[in-house]
Write a structure and sequence with these properties.
about 575 residues, alpha/beta, Gyrase A, domain 2, Isoleucyl-tRNA Synthetase, Domain 1, flat, EC 6.1.1.19
């Protein structure tokens, strides 16, 4: 049992409350002078019907604090607890030693399934830097939920349906060159697509051909499907190269087209529930009560939309996975789409609409100007990764030219820096990406955290030979105590990240831990004094190393031992 839980139990007993409720209220004061744990009594005022200072006073008198609490102090509306530092070090480090690289792992999510829709790239379209956030946030959530014991289903909801694919096939039939497409894949498809639009402006009949090919896809025509499948395969081959570099996995690639045959049932259901009405030729679900524009379900020509397929997809996911949460990691530009989607599901009487969530994020742009897909000024994600790795290689040549497996380390740092920067602020904020900033070893960056990890590794290598019992008195100074408290709070950071679907809590945590450790490292000699003292400090360093490594891995980032 951890200290907070033990403390919460004694408080609960004195206050006549439930321990988990109290545990949820306990805070860690920002300034250690205010104690190592604090109970904000104003949060109990309503239930106990007393003023917060009175509650604090009474509890301080009544409470039989656990042995590791050396002092209990009522301060205004707070009840502050001071820990015995020797005992604290001992208990935190023994929990960490036992967990090793599994610190913070839990079974809190056992029996619950979380579906995460992320990355969700479009066929025949470039995998550009705009997909970075969805991919990095979704993948981090995927790993974090798994670590917390949830069953997780990662879905790449491919954009593989729409009239544009008819045009693409028409263009391919007219001007396509198999060799070129095989070699250049998406960029060759893009070229065909652009040419189609240019020529269609002069020759209207091309659009007719495009429509005809789309109809063939819809009808399952063998040739149309074969070509389309081939385009899909090539697009995915390119995407998977990036996924591999980013350590991203999926359990399902069921894209939009997968839901085509599931749509009639959804339409029946909507009709049965009297939700489908005709409006200007189209079929819509009115959402006036929700204060939203109507959701268009069928266009006047009877074709379905992105939203229709998402409706079918949501029902399918509920039926197939019986999810506890169903998350969509998609840019905030699609806010309205998801509001409408969830509102329609609710109108259909699906209570589980409450368990669906749009995990929205802001835009990523490069420092040298925003992106425009239309003008062809596309920044490919793969190129960003490659450039980050190249720049890292140059840094390594300068700082540590003798390093072994430079290539691999450069890849781990360069790619890690890109991921880390994407996750280092609250996801809803827009990001302006700068190579120099994200690669700075001294900034609030991935490389800084990785560097701290290598620092731990090299300290540990130097005290590997020592034997004896740790002397915890070597860890009672303020700096060591600050590191210990952070180590103990890793599970809370993971819980916050999963509750709010914000990997940023983990990034922030890693920066805090790295900073606290570096302060400790600069102000204290680790390999000093008796073997027992050094062993105790080494245990602290090992705890930091393992926790940094685990935290980075949850974000999809490697932690090399040397860099
Ligand atoms: N392919 C879409 C896009 O690039 C994202 C799909 C998100 N997932 C979903 N179920 N709508 O905008």
């Amino acid at each position: 049992m951890d200290l907070k839980t033990a403390l919460a139990e004694t408080i609960a007993k004195a206050a006549g409350m439930e321990a988990p409720q109290v545990a949820g209220l306990l805070e860690t004061p920002p300034d250690p002078k205010m104690g190592d744990a604090a109970l904000p009594c104003f949060k109990l005022a309503k239930e106990l019907r007393k003023a917060p200072p009175v509650i604090a006073q009474e509890l301080a008198g009544k409470l039989e604090a656990p042995a590791f609490v050396t002092r209990t102090e009522a301060a205004g509306g707070y009840l502050n607890f001071f820990y015995d530092r020797n005992f604290y070090a001992e208990s935190v480090l023994s929990a960490l030693e036992e967990a090793g690289e599994d610190w913070g792992r839990s079974d809190a999510g056992a029996g619950k399934t979380v579906v995460i829709d992320y990355s969700s790239v479009n066929i025949a379209k470039p995998f550009h830097i705009g997909h970075l956030s969805s991919t990095a946030i979704g993948s981090a959530l995927y790993k974090i939920y798994k670590y917390l014991g949830y069953d997780v289903v990662g879905v790449n909801h491919l954009g593989d349906w729409g009239t544009q694919f008819g045009k693409l096939i028409a263009a391919y039939k007219l001007w396509g060159n198999d060799e070129e497409i095989d070699r250049d894949s998406v960029s060759a498809m893009l070229k065909l697509y652009v040419r189609f639009h240019e020529e269609a402006e002069k020759d209207e009949s091309l659009n007719e051909q495009g429509r005809a090919w789309f109809k063939k896809i819809e009808e399952g025509d063998e040739e149309a499907l074969r070509i389309f499948e081939w385009f899909k395969e090539l697009t995915l081959r390119e995407a998977k190269r990036v996924y591999e570099r980013l350590d991203v996995q999926f359990d399902s690639y069921a894209g939009e087209s997968f839901y085509n045959d599931k749509i009639p049932a959804v339409l029946d259901e909507l009709r049965e529930k009297n939700l489908l009405v005709q409006s200007e030729g189209a079929w819509v679900v009115r959402l006036d009560e929700e204060g939203l524009p109507p959701a268009i379900i069928l266009k006047s020509d009877g074709t379905t939309l992105y939203a229709t397929r998402d409706l079918a997809a949501a029902e399918y996911r509920k039926k197939t996975y019986d999810f506890y949460k169903n998350l969509y990691v998609v840019a905030y530009q699609q806010n309205l789409h998801f509001k409408q989607l969830f509102a329609v599901l609710k109108k259909m009487g699906h209570e589980w609409a409450e368990q669906c969530e749009h995990v929205a994020f802001g835009m990523v742009s490069l420092e040298d100007g925003t992106l425009s897909t239309r003008k062809g000024k596309i920044v490919l994600l793969e190129d960003v990764l490659t450039k980050a790795v190249e720049k890292t290689r140059a840094v390594i040549e300068e700082k540590n030219p003798g390093l072994a497996n430079k290539e691999q380390v450069a890849e781990e740092i360069g790619v890690g820096a890109v991921i880390f920067s994407t996750l280092s602020q609250s996801r809803i904020k827009d990001i302006t990406f700068s190579f120099d900033r994200v690669l700075n070893y001294d900034g609030e960056t991935g490389p800084y955290v990785q560097y701290t990890h290598t620092r731990c590794a090299s300290v540990l290598a130097r005290c590997a030979e020592l034997t004896g019992e740790p002397d915890m008195d070597a860890l009672t100074d303020d700096d060591a105590f600050a590191v210990l408290k952070l180590l103990a709070s890793f599970p809370q950071a993971l819980a916050a990240a999963s509750e709010k679907n914000e990997p940023f809590y983990v990034t922030r945590y890693l920066l805090d831990l790295a900073q606290a450790f570096n302060k400790y490292y600069y102000e204290h000699r680790i390999i000093d004094g008796s073997a027992e003292q050094t062993i105790a400090r080494a245990a602290l360093v090992r705890g930091v190393k393992n926790t940094l490594k685990t935290g980075l891995a949850l974000l999809g980032i490697k932690a090399p031992d040397k860099m």
